[in-house]
Amino acid sequence: MSLLVVGSVAFDSIKTPFGEKERVLGGSAMYCSVAASFFTDVRVVAVVGGDFDAEAEAVYHEREIDISDLERIPDQKSFFWKGEYGYDLNVAKTLDTQLNVFADFKPKLSAAARQTPYLFLGNIQPELQVEVREQVAAKLVAADTMNYWIKNTPDELREMLKHIDLLIINDAEARELAGEANLVRAARAVLSMGPKRLVVKRGEYGAAMFTNDTYFATPAYPLEEVFDPTGAGDSFAGGFMGYLAATDATDEAAIRRAIIYGSVMASFNVEEFSCDRTRRLTYEEINARFRELRAISHFEEGHMPRRVTTREK
Amino acid sequence: MSLLVVGSVAFDSIKTPFGEKERVLGGSAMYCSVAASFFTDVRVVAVVGGDFDAEAEAVYHEREIDISDLERIPDQKSFFWKGEYGYDLNVAKTLDTQLNVFADFKPKLSAAARQTPYLFLGNIQPELQVEVREQVAAKLVAADTMNYWIKNTPDELREMLKHIDLLIINDAEARELAGEANLVRAARAVLSMGPKRLVVKRGEYGAAMFTNDTYFATPAYPLEEVFDPTGAGDSFAGGFMGYLAATDATDEAAIRRAIIYGSVMASFNVEEFSCDRTRRLTYEEINARFRELRAISHFEEGHMPRRVTTREK
Q1: Whole-prediction pTM
Q2: How far apart are CA A73 and CA A190, in angstroms?
């Protein structure tokens, strides 16, 4: 089955403690679609400006990602983000944001896009997420969001949450959305807002998933070098949705495996700038890291010797 | 096999967002020994003052913990700590510390104590940890420490690390000890200082273990109510060392299971003040939570469909 991804396609200028680079490929839809393309056919809905040239397009052709729904506005510029990370790579400092073409983005979907069975609504205005969701006859809809929308458009965000099956956010966002410090209680509050499943990204600590009846958690793949964390969350979403779309399965076991594939794709993505590492991945590398994550978190049934005190006898 | 625990036996006054209580039982050796007593015979080496009365002693008798090596100084007071937690329960604010009897503590070990095969050196001055370690013919020695010793007695701490098999600290301590923000690299640096294994406690995110060749990580048991985090790390150490001593196994598989039992004991401990929850645990409750942790982190082998682009054909 195929996957439709709506979000941003952008240029980023990034500085980390390990290097800096100007105007690399970025945007939630870019990161998500490149990661998902290793699993399934992907179509992108986004908007770009005249600066989206052949070089920027190359990765989409290379990964055979369908960009026929990519709107182009030749006399404007693409979305641009400039950010910096300190040694705490969990926190990005935004130095500049230029919405450009994104300011008036109204997603336009082709007939083919409307028939896509799996839909990922990347982090854009909640109203636009709803607009897209209503046009697509998808069997599974997942969405991301961010603190900006939680704070500035809470009503629109609440409305969006009623239209999706699954929300994929990080733990700070889950806490902020629920107004609750404890993640277990925050998750229950988020689930009461609409989505049947909540996937919580925890960066170097891994990921967790909540439903009303089940809980799953995995550690992250241990990395010695986190070179550039930009796009980790969207790469996670790409691996996650790509695996579900490819297997056309949405049961608990499949979704747990999807979280592992999401973790794997995120772990590769942060090893280099932009999608530089992800785009040249192989099937073997992805599966090898999946197996490593299994080995890393494996432990056998316990056999606890029972010590009985006199009182308990 | 039995376990020897050296550390503090104290009184704590604790305030959390959920309540406060004056002069409850505390101290690293108390938390560790009560948790370990569900698995194996435990002997405590520590010092207390005249305020360590029958009520304070009760839990040791109830759990049949050997306190014949507990030194008593009737005309002085026990170690006292007063602390407060805000909504971020990961950070304790120390309001008062009175070393009292602890200021001149010189651990004195009985002949029986010196023959204990499993030894846990709770968080005390590194020189004292070394002194105890050298007197005990143990087959496995684990130690804890804290930021205070990392900062103030770095040479003594480095010396201590050469005398132990296993270090159990939290992730901030591992980073500080190694002077390295990345945990994987920090772990490698810590292992080069002496211990063959490093167990890293990550609070609500679980725990990880590093050797030079292996890595293991587990999420934490998800709790809706973390009532009082005091003693979580020592309860972890108690479950961990108690299980190893009880099974007399120190291979990778056993140590992974020990980490799970440690996580289980820590998760119970934080549900109430002091050791109030831990002391009335049952064998069935402990094993049930072990099985839950297994279920929570379980996922099956992946079957990733291979999407091959034209270029890759």
Answers
A1: 0.95
A2: 37
